[in-house]
Amino acid sequence: MSSSNSGFNERTVRFIYLLTFIFLVLSGFGQMPIFKRYYIADIPGFGWLAQFYVTHAIHYIFASVLIGLSCYVVLDHILDREKDRRITKTGYAKSVMLIGLMGTGGFMVYKNISGVFFPHNMIIALDIVHLGLCMILMFYSFYTVIAKKSWVRHPINDILQKME
Question: What are the entry keywords (predicted)?
Fold first, then answer.
């Protein structure tokens, strides 16, 4: 994900992405009353999951972190002088899902601005598409972890493996 010249190393970027992903999923599902309904919020330390405005603010904060991290990774990839990385099919698939999530999320943020009106059917469609993309990304991410598929491939590593 990141070259050795950059400010963040690949492990740091992965950790920030994982932490962001976890909090986005938790706070996103917290927008629905499932944590209170199924008594998960009654577990000590998880009470915040049942508070709509808290999960809403956390979701916005971590969505901003995800957008910033995505911009960093894209710019780092574009400006990589050594060109030692290639995006895999997995990387392209996850990128499309993330772009879709950011797009639908952006429309939902815009919809929440005072004075902005969206038709009810559009709001429902945005919610369903956003939730669907989240679920697809979540399950696809589990699959890629189990199958050990990466976002990027380092061609030099392929050459070294062939030489062994």
Answer: Membrane, Transmembrane, Transmembrane helix
Q: What is the pLDDT of residues 120-132, one digit of tens each?
A: 999 999 999 999 9
What is the per-residue pLDDT for 2? Answer: 41
Distance CA 64, CA 71 (A): 11
Give the integer Cα–Cα distance in Å for 150 and 68: 21
DSSP secondary structure letter of residue 1: -
b vs e for 34-59, b when ≥16 Cβ sit within 10 Å of the residue's Cβ?
Answer: ebbeeeebeeeeeeebbeeeebeebb
Per DSSP, helices labelled H in the chain are 10-30, 34-37, 52-78, 89-111, 120-147, 155-163
List the one residue out of 43, 64, 60, 44 whose CA is nearest residue 52: 60
CA distance 27 to 42: 16
